[in-house]
Amino acid sequence: MVNVKGGTRPPWVGLGAAVWLQIASGNAYNFPLYSHSLKSVLGFNQQQLTMLGVANDIGENVGLIPGLVCNKFPPWVVLLIGSFSCFFGYGVLWLSLSQTVQNLPYWMLWIALCVATNSSAWFSTTVLVTNMRNFPLSRGTVAGILKGYGGLSAAVYTEVYSALLRNSSSKLLLFLALGVPALSLLMMYFIRPCTPSLGEDSSESYHFLFVQVASIVLGVYVLTTTILEDVFSLNVLVSYTLLIIMVVLLMAPLAIPVKMTFYPSNRGKLGVSDVSVQDNSSAENSEPLLTPLSSSANLGSFQEGDEISEVDMLLAEGEGAVKKKRRPRRGEDFKFTEAMVKADFWLLFLVYFFGVGSGVTVLNNLAQIGIAQGLHDTKILLSLFSFCNFVGRLGGGVISEYFVRLKAVPRTVWMTCTQVVMIITYLLFASALNGTLYAATALLGVCYGVQFTTMVPTASELFGLKHFGIIFNFMSLGNPLGAYLFSGLLAGYLYDNEAAKQHSATCLGPDCFRVTFLILAGVCGLGTVLSIVLTMRIRPVYQMLYAGGSFRLPQSSSH
Predict the structure, then answer these.
(1) Phi, psi values for residue 330, rounded to 5°
(2) Distance CA 103, CA 82 (A)
(3) DSSP 8-class letter at 298
(4) Which of 85, 191, 209, 411 could form a disulfide with 75 if both were Cys (CB 3.0 to 4.6 A apart)?
(5) In sequence order, what are the residues at sequence separation of 6 or more whose Cβ sits closer than 8 angstroms to the Cβ of residue 243?
């Protein structure tokens, strides 16, 4: 049984620590920062480099094992495994790129990159599952905040890469191998399950608003400093000062538990007291004739494991503690195997696959796309994508949460809208018109971010929080699957063919990726149709869950 921390302050301490770990979990976004060095130092062609990009995405998104482990063990165990994964994986890549160890085989580097970026799955699964359980009534907001910081991590790493590491790819890999595990070890104590608040609290909404504003300020700051460092030649002292300010902004969410420490809420104390009095009086008035056995005391709690023997279940049914076992309805807690036989499960997976699978293809090839269109320094392009990805993730969570509470609008509506915009964006990329590269990158970043932050709460609302870790991570497989099909097999192959026609290792001109973009536009067209179908199917579920303007926990979600 996982030890659950009580009180109103610990969940906010955990959320503040989760922000740092969510930034750390974005280590996979650094691939464009050192991919060119892998190509030049180790002599890889574009298709080999693209397949390393696939390894990067597979490691980042294959989180089925973390999803299972987070239901069986406390969060610190999951974070510890992620730390070891990060250390060994990036350590091998650093040994190869720095030429400390020479002639490591390609397959070993491929596996090392998978292991390294798989730390992202361990980190993000831990913080997302723990915090969504700590704030079950604000799932969209929490998912938007955490996924938003995750999307912003690429810009944060770019700032560290430029200011602290002086654009050195080998130093970046060493930083990832040592710095990220150290951060995880430092923060793991604060990421813990807490007693969730199941009542509406006005102060909670203000606290969330503060974190959202702080993240926006951080995003604007990081994008601005990246542009300044690219346009002007800043000295070391100025660069370090800008880096320190960024670290202070990252600590902003911790201001909430500090404020709660120095200015405790009397209303919160009275609320707890009143609830306990009411609970005691109701317990006295409805005391059962027969005392239930302890075997049924903790059935159905998503804070605990689901290891219940058949004998205990039969005893509990006989005592009337639980109803006879039945298949769950949408909105209740599903086991993974129960969710997999539902049409909505696969529709959500396919919609997410088409959206993020096409988007990650552009992200993995962003440096080459920029060079092909005549842009020599692609750092600004990566920072722009990262910032807009952050805006999409944060904004998607806020907007979907607002409309789902106002009119019970299914969150998948926003997946539909953004995939329509993605069709237009890919056509802009394919046209290669002057001045459209930055606009197309920004639009794609926003739409790509919305896919993430919409899928996460949708999966939890349709299939429950009890087994959310493994369900969410299975959905996340859409990312590496899309990277393999659309980036590894399609984009890399077409790019190398076009480069061969130019008798060069580097392809230049709009034809390098034009066919790829047209195919991706068609893929998002199919995703749009499926998203409309899914939205129509799950609309009754949202009308049930948000009938009163706020989320209602299902009456029977244990089984």
Answers:
(1) -60, 130
(2) 27
(3) T
(4) 191
(5) 159, 160, 163, 164
pLDDT of residue 342: 92
Nearest to 152 by CA among 430, 452, 416, 435: 452
What separation in angstroms does the CA of 248 have from each of 16, 241, 255, 459?
12, 11, 11, 34
The HSE-up count of residue 533 (CA atoms within 13 Å, CB side) is: 14
Measured CA to CA, the distance from residue 80 to residue 98 in angstroms comes to 27
Higher-confidence position of 233 and 493: 493
Instruction: Report how far residue 457's alpha carbon sits from residue 204's, in angstroms, rounded to the nearest whole number.
Output: 18
Sign of the CA dihedral running 314, 317, 321, 323: positive
H/E stretch holding 170 reads helix 169-187
> Chain-centre distance of CA 207, in angstroms?
21
If phi > 0 it is left, if psi is from -120 to 50 it is alpha, else beta; for residue 435 that is left
Q: Which two tokens stand for residue 546?
A: 């948000």
3-state secondary structure of 73: coil
Please check whether residue 221 is in contact with residue 228, taking contact to mean a CB–CB distance below 8 angstroms. no
Tell me, letter by letter, the H, E, C secondary structure of 469-512. Answer: HHHHHHHCCHHHHHHHHHHHHHHHHHHHHHHHHCCCCCCCCHHH
Cβ atoms of residues 332 and 464 within 8 Å = yes
Average pLDDT on 519-544 reads 94
Distances from the Cα of 22 to the Cα of 18, 120, 125, 140, angstroms: 6, 8, 10, 16
CA dist., res. 304 & res. 294, Å (int): 15
Overall average pLDDT of the 372-397 stretch? 83
Distance CA 459, CA 478 (A): 14
Residues 6+ apart with CB under 8 A from 274: none
> How far, CA to CA in Å, does 17 sit from each of 178, 183, 221?
19, 10, 21
- Section 69-88 average pLDDT: 93
Q: Is 378 helix (H, G, I), strand (E, B) or coil?
A: coil
Torsion-angle region of residue 193: left (phi > 0), alpha (psi -120 to 50) or beta? beta
pTM for this structure? 0.75
Counting beta carbons within 10 angstroms of the beta carbon of residue 225, is it exposed (0 to 12), middle (13 to 18) or buried (19 or more)?
Answer: buried
| Residue 113 identity (one-letter amino acid) | L
Which amino acid type is present at position 273?
A: S
3-state secondary structure of 194: strand
Closest-CA residue to 251 (of 149, 139, 382, 155):
149
Radius of gyration of the chain (CA): 24
* Nearest CA among 36, 12, 33 for reference residue 156: 33
Pairwise CA distance, residues 245 & 218, whole Å:
9
The total number of residues written for the chain in this structure: 559
152 within 8 A of 219, measured Cβ to Cβ: yes
Average pLDDT over residues 3-11: 60
